[in-house]
Specification:
Layout (H helix, E strand, L loop, with lengths): L21 H23 L1 H12 L3 H8 L1 H20 L2 H19 L5 H15 L3 H11 L2 H33 L1 H13 L2 H7 L9 H5 L5 H9 L2 H19 L4 H8 L4 H33 L3 H22 L3 H17 L1 H12 L4 H48 L3 H12 L2 H4 L3
Helix pairs in contact: 1-5, 1-7, 1-8, 2-8, 3-19, 4-6, 4-19, 5-6, 5-7, 5-9, 5-10, 7-19, 8-9, 8-15, 8-18, 13-18, 13-19, 13-20, 14-15, 14-19, 15-17, 16-17, 16-18, 16-19, 16-20
Length: 434
Amino acid sequence: MLEFDPATTPDKSRHSWDLYTRRNRSVFLLILFAVGTSNYVDRNIIGVLLEGIKAEFHVSDTLLGLLTGMSFALFYVVFGIPVARWADRGNRRHVITISVLIWSFLTVLCGSAHTFWQLVAARFGVGAGEAGAIPPAQSLLADYYPPQDRARAIGVFMTSGAAGYAIGLVLGGFVAQNYGWRAAFEVVGCAGFALAPLTNFFLIEPRETSQPKRLTDNCESIYAAMHALFAKPAYRNVVMALVIYFLVAYGALVFIVSFMMRFHKLRVSQAGTIYGVVSTIGSLVGSVWGGALADRLARRDVAWLGRFAGVGLIVALPLYELTLSLSGILAMTVALLLATVLLTAVVPAMFSSLHLVCGSTRRALAVAIALFFANLIGLGFGPLIAGALSDRFGITYGPGDGLRYALMFVIPALLPAGLLMLRAAKYLRSDAED
């Protein structure tokens, strides 16, 4: 059973994070890590199942891009802001628990689709359910951890994306190759049902224990809250950078497994395993190292949150282009690993920048708005653009080179993302609220 820090009491605590011991925070972080992992497994397993879906339903890469991007992103962004507003005013533990149940059920339903469009509809539902995961989870972490430790905590939490991606690719590839793509959806969806009781039992809502009136009496309208956020140049620039980041990281790169299969002639299990291992190692190293370094730099000057993210995004660009240019499997894997480390290292700094300037009563909303645009534009159109370019280039260069050139065309978007974070760095000090 979790205990409050004996050095503090709910009545005397100035901040919500003063209520919890280091052990409490570790348990909370572990549970939220599991939530994030389940979220990213169900979201990203589609990447290793594309070739099987394409073969069964006889669809183009453009429609595969629609399936992986817009079909998920549309309902994710539609539900994201109202759910975040509920989380900012209500019990975030309940929001997360209900969301886990919804997306797990809809993922199982994906495996029962009889037509391509039924599968698209089920993915709409997965997106709706997952809208209640990341913003409330980050909001809780920001209340559990003080600002000087926040980037590191967010960095550890964000490694759940790597864990989920790896599990989705490796487990999904194994199940798909041996039992079919439908079984892969069903296996990971059922696994999510075991998580909901853990979130409801182990997580604590600080608003229930720490000065309830001060923490829950949030009467600010959603219009006023959004106006306050977008009035800050730092927030605007970070949001725009995240949009472009998503276009590359969660949009175009969803085709990496297909690229390995088409260009390097690997089997689905081989490609899924390679990318799963690379994603896991790269994201673990990148997120933990990036979060720790961002915290250390920010103690000197909070502007370094933006500078660190900006430089990392720009340096990742040539590494990804090199990855797509190499013909050897080993050399390609090494370049991809280095690129993955950099691309994930910047994430804690980017989200810590949001929490720095948003204010304590707008945390979930600030993240949800950022994810609204990032998913709608980045995740929604990233795979669609890459898929359409692949179809176009494939006519001239064939399916392998066509997809490779399409990805090489999209990757340079990391340059403006990096420049936007460097611009945000100029405003972080003046826009900071905590």
